[in-house]
Amino acid sequence: MPRKLRRDLPELLIRTAQEEGCAGFKNGELLRRVSPLFQVLVTLDQRMQYQQNLRQFDLGLVVIDIPDTRLEFVRELLPQIRDAIQRISPGEVIVIAR
Questions:
Q1: Where are the domains of the chain?
Q2: Considering only CA atoms, which of 80, 34, 29, 98 is closest in space to residue 60?
Q3: What is residue 48's predicted lDDT score, i.e. its pLDDT?
């Protein structure tokens, strides 16, 4: 996700996987490492939901499914992203598509 997106969600405490020392890990290892740190993982990686058994992790996954991932296009989905973050449960996947 674009880091600048956090400015648009000031009501949320947002940390990136990179800031938590988890950058560069494959999806399964990434999920194992961030599960104790995050309640929700927001990603542009649409494959993650199919490659991993998300019920084994204690976090929700919000997948942004858009053809162009530039910040201006992600910003168009902010109301849906905000809503998904607020209502997701651990082990759940919510896909936001345009």
A1: 3-97
A2: 34
A3: 84
Q: How many CB atoms lie within 10 A of CB 59?
A: 19
Q: What are the residue ranges of helices labelled H in the chain?
A: 27-34, 48-51, 71-75, 78-87
Q: CA nearest 65: which of 90, 82, 43? A: 43
In this prediction, residue 28 carries a pLDDT of: 86
pLDDT at 1 over 80: no
What are the pLDDT digits (tens) for 25-55?
Answer: 888 888 888 899 889 999 988 888 888 788 8
Up-side HSE of residue 96: CA atoms within 13 Å toward CB?
22
Joined tokens for residue 4: 């600048």
